[in-house]
Amino acid sequence: MIPRRLLAGFFILFLVLPNVGAWAMAAHANKPNTWTTVAPLPQSRFWPAAAGAGGRIYVFGGLCRTGFCNTFESYNPRTNTWTAMGALPEALAGIPSATYTDGRIYLAGSAAPTPNRRGGPALLVYDPATNRWAQTAPSPGFGGTAQLLTGLGGVLYAIGGRHDGSIADTLDAYNPSTRKWTFSTAIPHPRYYPGATLGPDGRIYIIGGAERNGKSDRVEAFNARTGKWSTVASLPTPRSALQAVTGPDGRIYAIGGRGKCFTTPCRVVEAYDVRSNGWTAVAPLPHHHAAFAAVVGLDGRIYVLGGNPTVVDVYTTVPAGQPLPVSKPGPTPIAKTLAPMPTARDSLAAAAGGDGLIYAIGGESTGPVKPGGIPAFLNSVEAYNPKSNAWRREPSLPGARLGLAATTGPDGRIYVVGGSGDGKGRLLEVLG
């Protein structure tokens, strides 16, 4: 709910500054359980990190058009504008994560490799008041794709991720006052790419993700006071690479991701009520977001940004104490399911060839892996024939990689660009 004084300010801004008129109208148009699209990101970002501080939304790094970018930007909800903030101390590869505590933003990820070093886990600290950066040591069990969140008392937690070629099963705690990490607990069911958030009851919730047998619907809660884990109601739509946030209404929102949604990526948004231990489907994302970030702004709205490629969608929650619209949770229905890909994969590239076939290129395996292992990066290429509804194997890429892009040139050949996985992310390769 927007205070009347603030609404009056919006009307004044609308009359005096026409360029923010769209924001003023959008502010009044926001109704509970609806989405609004605001000013786009200044540049395309996949797998960025985001955090709120001082009434602004900050977005960091990610995969930009030129590779892993070391820039960051801030968004002002009052003016609906973005501001370039400068450069990170170093570019972060993989999937960075950010959280706010003790007046600073902590940004974690894997330092992008350079000609002089292999890279590795990194933990950067940003002071919004001075626009300055510092560095601190990551936890001993820190995985490059670990998620950061702020727990009770401002304690920082690093959850899971990949570490030394396996799925990390640790939940480590960092005390900003002492600047020391301690091992907190082992995660009962290690997963990569889960959603994670601090619930309204003070427990840490780990939601979905991917286990060795595929996408997970598992939801587990950790009580830092007792040091105990408990299992709560399962996620209705199993998925990984989702984002989880706790809204001002006290509900936990599981947003988007990849899984059994019959859309890639899926737009499903489901809300969890801690008191009833139940999930409810709410308004789905208005746009597809792959490899994105989500954060709750000081205005109480949920911001989803990145992965499409510059679209920023904002959700207005149903006020606390009011019931959610009744909607059956579950996958988004489609009219017809076509022949499945022979190789289960995500983070792939796809393009229509000049021969009328649709090509699935590279990516990351989503099939079963060995206990404690991580999915393999793929160099395989498969082509789908819409006429026969059948797939066939094509010659493989020279190198395995995920997060790549593909497009069909005027000569009918498919051009494959970028990605990561084998150090060949800068390559331009041609199929056909």
* Rg from Cα: 21 Å
How would you write the strand order of the largest sheet?
A: 1-32-31-30
Mean pLDDT: 83
What's the helix count? Answer: 2
Quick one: overall form? globular
Structural class: mainly beta
Q: Helix proportion of residues, in percent? A: under 10%
User: Which regions contain 5 or more consecutive residues with pLDDT less than 50?
Assistant: 1-28
| Residue share in β-strands | 35-45%
Number of strands: 41
For the sheet with most strands, the description reads: 4 strands, antiparallel
Span of the ends, CA to CA: 56 Å
How does this model look, in words?
This protein is mainly beta. 5% of the residues lie in helices and 41% in strands. The chain contains 2 helices and 41 strands. Strands 1-32-31-30 form a 4-stranded antiparallel β-sheet, covered by helices on one side. A 4-stranded antiparallel β-sheet has the order 2-3-6-7, with no helix packed on it. It has a 4-stranded antiparallel β-sheet with strand order 8-9-10-11, with no helix packed on it. Helix 1 runs antiparallel to helix 2 (21-29). The chain is globular.
Describe the structure in brief:
5% of the residues lie in helices and 41% in strands. It has two helices and 41 strands.
